[in-house]
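Appendix B. One record, verbatim.
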Amino acid sequence: MLSRDTSSPPHNLITSHVLLSSPDDYISTLPDECLACIFQSLSSGDRKRCSLVCRRWLQVEGQSRHRLSLNARSDLLPVIPYIFNRFDSVTKLALKCDRKSTSIGDDGLVLISLHCRNLTRLKLRACRELTDAGMAVFARNCKGLKKLSCGSCTFGAKGMNAILDNCSSLEELTVKRLRGITDGAAPAEPIGPGAAATSLKTIYLKELYNGQCFGPLIIGSKNLRTLKLFRCSGDWDTLLLLIASRVTGMVEIHLERLQVSDTGVTAISNCMYLEILHLVKTPECTNLGLKAVAENCKLLRKLHIDGWKTNRIGDDGLIAVAKNCPNLQELVLIGLNPTRISLELIAANCQNLERLALCGSETVGDAEISCIAAKCIALKKLCIKSCPVSNRGIEALAGGCPNLVKVKLKKCRGVTCEGADWLRTSRGSLAVNLDTHENEHQDASASDSNAHDNGLEMPPPPVAIQGGGGGASSSTGRSMSFKARLGLTAGRNLMVCTFRRWSSFTSGSRST
């Protein structure tokens, strides 16, 4: 047994030395493929540590790493050959630059494309020095690209068309704040579809001034399944009419802060296989458009509506959903005023409803919550925010919704900590999250993760090289971070509740 003398080397170094020099060194007999599989099950940090053990581990770790994230500043250019000589199997690459730095230019991207011929995924963030010429050369060198995401870049329509013309396997395209397609008063050059017409399945456009120049791409993508349009200027009704008449196989559509009316929403109803629809802050949409979708898209599973408190969508539209969409599993209503009439019909007809969020509604009170508790048999998650609900409505949940596992209550002034504690005690397996803070931002759609899961971007990491071949993904990291914040919030709420009960005991009055 090794002694733990303070003069001895650290235990992990001793272990590594014994493993690598012992006559019974079984690790040295492992094939490189097996060692690579072990590395791929580790986190990025552990992979880096393993690469320092010996030259063989350094080589195997580098050759088995498929994901790489680089700080794409201009000073990256001289070290690109060294990086990709070591990581010569990279298929997923992220190049991110901060706003205050100068990004790599065409020379850097072309050099990367020469070393990464098998690249399938590329993410570009704030690479403002890239031009159409550099994107064109990259597209010719990396024709196997399947996913491209670019945000805050300055190349234009020619560079985008070069990708679409050369990458015939492109399946997913995300474009955010592409500055190069804005040429002042000149009309934007049409984009797409090129060779990617039959392969594209997902198109996501966000904050584009001339987003409608992507119209030919959307219309020509015959096998498109998901379309997301966020905050793109211009009138989209006419384009949606063309899209829905030619691309009828879409199953997921997101429209957020878009100039679209019932004309465009009614056109969407032509997509008979539609399963997911988000209408977020589209104030010109009314019950008429929602009725058309409900009557023709009977496979609808997820429906998110943020009415922006315009009161143009209400019971009539929701009743049509209840009557025609029995497969509904998730319903998020923000800024709408549904009554017991529509909620009771939804609860009775949509027997598969598992997730329900009611936010910023003036008509959802104790009677409506009692109706949900009595009728929604399959409900698992319930979120109530800024609604006139009191402890009496919360008490109804104790005996209803037998499959309920989580209740989130936020800014419901009538619900006290005592009421939430009573519900927890009554149903020990039920997670009850109460937040009574009043000083938060009033935008309901931006605050509830159950209402809008838009995949917020994380800031670029400060280190130069990140990522692993098969370790914990970034989504896992965000999930763990969210759980940690959730635990912290729960602890804070518990302190608030305890303080209030103590104040009530000492002063003889109930704190609200």
